[in-house]
Design a protein that fits this description.
InterPro entries: Glyco_trans_2-like (IPR001173), Glycosyltransferase_2 (IPR050256), Nucleotide-diphossugar_trans (IPR029044). The protein has 10 helices and 8 strands. The protein is an alpha/beta fold. It folds into 2 domains: 228 residues, Spore Coat Polysaccharide Biosynthesis Protein SpsA, Chain A; 70 residues. Helix 2 links the parallel strand 2 and strand 3. Helix 5 packs parallel to helix 8 and helix 9 runs antiparallel to helix 10. It is elongated, with a radius of gyration of 24 Å.
Length: 319
């Protein structure tokens, strides 16, 4: 069972999409805060929680909340397809004139949704996105994330990508454009910036997880997401190949001049250690090139496979 694609006929004023994965300790607080924030805007809303293949009691808790308030919709995927795919599934199901995206760990405060809505309701902007002024995370994690954002901002040529995440609200016009992008390797903040339209940042301090546990996005997943962003929106990997090759050429040009000069001056020629280092240097550059080209080939292969981003186990959306 697949949710309807409501890209043309919004039936509600506001939809909020929240992907969750193994969040049984947060569900009660998450849903209560979201319902309160949305009720302060309008009664004509839907809260779509996308269960991304949770293995704990997350789905049961969501269905229990749905029995109390039918404006909570639950989209259960057939397995864990990943954060970006879960967002995409929820956005396809959303029926609102305005549609928001928010992580399910409460690091993005739902109380900011009314402010985002105010930025859009008078047709001043098409997209309002949360811009992080601070983040309650370890210094090492902040350092790595900050380095990624600086690199991505410098090489992607996109605007509205500095210290931002998925937390945002789009009107239907912008969302239809957003959903028209069909690539499989998805970095949603980059795609949101790519479509253009009138965008505005809403500053906020990113909070720690409500239950005090570590973020669900491990360093490995963050690295994968960063690579998807760089390979999709930047020519940095290719430039690394180019500049490495140029550096290698300059190094060996200097080495060649030194060898000729040493022969002419009667200085002892290079030994086996120098020759070995030269071979290792060239070999490492070649392996780097092959790795970068392999990343591009894999992404091209994945796009050509054209597999669906997700499958829906069941969509609990009936009144």
């Amino acid at each position: 069972m697949m949710p309807a694609d409501n890209t043309a006929t919004p039936a509600l004023l506001l939809s909020v999409v929240v992907p969750v994965f193994n969040e049984e300790g947060l569900i009660d607080t998450l849903v209560a805060r979201c319902l309160a924030a949305l009720s302060s805007i309008t009664a004509d809303f839907e809260l779509i929680c996308v269960d991304d293949g949770s293995r704990d009691r997350t789905l049961d808790q969501l269905l229990a909340w749905r029995q109390r308030d039918s404006r909570l919709k639950v989209l259960a995927l057939s397995r864990n397809f990943g954060h970006q795919a879960a967002y995409t599934a929820g956005l396809h199901a959303a029926r609102g004139q305005y549609v928001a995206m928010m992580d399910g760990d409460l690091q993005d405060p739902p109380e900011l949704l009314p402010q985002m809505y105010e930025q859009l309701r008078h047709d001043q902007h098409d997209i309002a996105y949360g811009q992080r002024t601070d983040r309650a995370e370890s210094w090492g994690r902040r350092l790595l994330i900050g380095a990624f954002h600086r690199i991505f901002r410098g090489f992607s040529r996109l605007k509205e990508v500095d210290n931002v995440g998925n937390f945002s609200m789009l009107n239907r016009r912008a969302l239809n454009a957003f959903l028209s992008l069909q690539e499989k390797n998805r970095y949603l903040p980059g795609l949101r910036s790519f479509i253009g339209y009138r965008q505005v940042g809403v500053p906020y301090a990113r909070q720690p997880r409500h239950d005090g546990t570590l973020p669900k996005m491990s360093h490995g997943r963050l690295l994968k997401l960063a690579l998807d962003a760089l390979f999709s929106f930047s020519d940095l990997p290719i430039k690394i190949c180019l500049y490495s090759g140029l550096v290698g050429m300059l190094v060996f040009l200097a080495a060649g001049i030194y060898v000729v000069a040493s022969k002419m001056l009667g200085v002892a020629p290079f030994g086996w250690s120098s020759l070995g280092l030269s071979i290792y240097f060239v070999g490492s550059i070649q392996l780097l090139f092959l790795g970068i080209l392999g990343e591009y080939v894999f992404r091209i292969y994945r796009e050509n496979q054209n597999r669906p981003l997700y499958f829906v186990q069941r969509y609990y959306d009936e009144q």
